[in-house]
Specification:
Helix content: 25-40%
CATH superfamily of one domain: Alpha/Beta hydrolase fold, catalytic domain
Largest sheet: 8 strands, mixed
CATH topology of one domain: Rossmann fold
Strand content: 15-25%
Number of helices: 10
Number of strands: 10
Strand order of the largest sheet: 2-3-5-4-7-8-9-10
CATH class of one domain: Alpha Beta
Radius of gyration: 18 Å
Oligomer: single chain
């Protein structure tokens, strides 16, 4: 019993540990004639978010790209390259407690939702009148859903957990076997202690219906952390119009790298269908 308590406490600490990193400008950008703009955005999370604005000539829209846990804005550069080719200017930020953005702990979407709001507000102010799409991967997707409605024109979430309880159980199951799911309450009980927020506030499946825009839900067919059941639950809870795609054989990995051709087809096809000449109202 005491071993389980000790293990769960250590696991909880690792789950919310900050992930600071230092780095320079993007190593490559598809629009080399345009300067990358360094950003410092004030967020209600309490952090001044560090980020980049990546402009394009004559943009058709703006994409806000939100990275996964233990990542930073650089994880979204491949998506930015793809979107730039389709005419989207891009906003990339380090969520609080990640990359160059300060923060005491990762809050599993609670404070990060304020970062999503700050990034969207910047996108709207920087390119007024253009459609705004948010693409969030894992933690970034959870933050975008929990922040909703963001007043955006489309939302794409990738490999997002349905609820924090299920996310914890799935991780225990993957690393230690099915019996370890019994330890889930020992970790979820730490959420209000460590983060000052109820587990009830960390259930994207209960918030996605309020997105207020077309939603694309992407998942990995072999993802042990955000399994197909979570992807389907989020899709079913989303309001119309919506779409879903499972990348067969893909674990909790970068779906764009796992299958570049399909990722491009799913993402750009969805955006063209909803942000084209006859956008969703």
């Amino acid at each position: 019993m005491f071993a389980g308590l000790g293990f769960s406490w250590l696991a909880g600490g690792r789950l919310v540990a900050p992930n600071p990193r230092s780095f320079g400008l993007p190593p490559a950008w598809s629009q080399p004639d345009r300067a990358v703009e360094e950003l410092a955005l004030e967020s209600a999370s309490g952090a001044t978010l560090s980020g980049w604005f990546l402009p394009v000539e004559e943009p058709c829209g703006v994409a806000v790209l939100l990275h996964p846990k233990e990542g930073d804005r650089r994880a979204m550069l491949g998506r930015a390259e793809l979107l730039a080719g389709a005419g989207y200017a891009c906003v990339l930020v380090d969520l609080q407690a990640h990359g160059k953005s300060p923060g005491e702990r990762v809050t599993l979407g609670h404070l990060e939702r304020e970062d999503a709001r700050a990034a969207v507000a910047f996108a709207k102010a920087r390119q007024p009148g253009l459609p705004v799409v948010v693409i969030g991967w894992s933690l970034g997707g959870a933050a975008a859903v929990l922040a909703g409605p963001l007043g955006i024109d489309a939302l794409v979430i990738e490999q997002v957990f349905a609820s924090i309880e299920e996310a914890v159980s799935d991780r225990f199951d993957h690393h230690m076997g099915g019996w370890a799911r019994l330890l889930t309450p020992l970790l979820t009980v730490q959420v209000p202690l460590r983060l000052g927020v109820s587990v009830d506030e960390l259930r994207p499946v209960e918030r996605i219906g309020a997105a207020g825009c077309p939603v694309l839900v992407l998942g990995g067919g072999a993802d042990p952390y955000s399994p197909p059941a979570a992807t389907r639950a989020l899709f079913e809870a989303a309001a119309q119009p919506k779409a879903m795609a499972l990348f067969e054989g893909a674990g909790h990995v970068d779906l764009q790298r796992a299958d570049p051709a399909r990722y491009e087809r799913e993402l750009l096809g969805f955006l063209e269908g909803h942000l084209g000449s006859d956008p969703w109202p």
